[in-house]
Design goal:
The chain is mainly alpha-helical. The chain is built from 13 helices and 8 strands. The protein folds into 2 domains: 71 residues, no CATH class; 238 residues, no CATH class.
Length: 398
Amino acid sequence: MIDENHIYTISSDIEFSKFNENEYLLHNLQLNKYTKLNEKYYDLLSLVDGNKTLSEIQREFQELNKIPLSQDQIESLFGQLNKYGVFGHSDSIKENIKIPNYIKFGFIFLKSELVSKIVPFLSFLFKKSVYIPLFILSVIVFSFNLYINYHDYRELNIGKIFPYFMMLAFSSIIFHELGHATASHHFKAKHGGIGFGFFIYFIPVFFADVTDIWRLNRWKRIIVNSAGVYFEIIFCLTLSIIGFFTKNQTIEILALVIAGKALYNLLPFLRADGYWILSDLLNKPNLNFHSINNLKLTVTSFFKRKKQNLDIKDYFIAFYGLFNIMLIGAFFYYQIILNRDSIIRFPLTVLNIITSAYHGGFTMSFNELVKSLSVLIFYILSIKILFGFGKKLLKSFF
């Protein structure tokens, strides 16, 4: 039974900030939890002052907004905010452990205290006088490096270079995550530690806690989300220069492979950096959901002649969803129809690489290595799609 005389009080840990023209950001400073509110939801919470009863809040909201809203609906809306501790902390509310919900078995291995001691020394890399020359130099060096090595069919001893690749790849990933933390620090936003976990249970991923950037404007958020790739490119640029002056082709090729992995993160698919960058550009969190939903609405509108309330941005998001599907389809067509031999041989290739790490007998050209990496991406996407389909299938039965 609803108590219409109940008085709600917003916790002192709650902070509101403007997110865009029509939305606000709610932040629990103690629990480090965020959520977005539309304008009407924010107006409703603005009436909660620790003095008004539920019935008074209902009456005042209806008078100001001319929108019918029952006490049941208000209680339901307020109930949805319990997990953010809006009306006070309770033992049932779990503190945010600063690990993304799509990461499984995640843990923090570089504490925020240690990261905060490192990032001030790297902040200068975000000065315009530094990053513009670095960007131009990177384009020149990587283009030259790629041209020289892609057409060089000398065999690479994969077994011998694999341990070095793993060591350098790990170092570049740490530098990548430090990039996100440094950019967050540069814009006066809080950052947490750096952690490790698994995406969809089997794909190992690293992450940096920069949740606080939701308080920043979208252009600053875009810089923070692209900072990881920027730092990794600096790392690879350093490797390329070392390889060139020491005439060490192995280091040059490893720099190209790691740079390719870094640039792959800019693709706006899965939950890579490019996805968050595009999400910020459009000011649309949960972009995957909205892209598929807008695509469904657009298709329904076209075939059923049913007008939908969509603007230009909504149609662009729908096109993103369609392009995403078409791109994945084209990639699968190439791999299954035109590159099927590589797919069939790939498990044996991986086994040979692993065993040769001890014996040093397996060789491969850079050209073949690039093709093998594309097959690896094919396997990762295939497993992800099958995993998602299986999960939905299980839900339908249980």
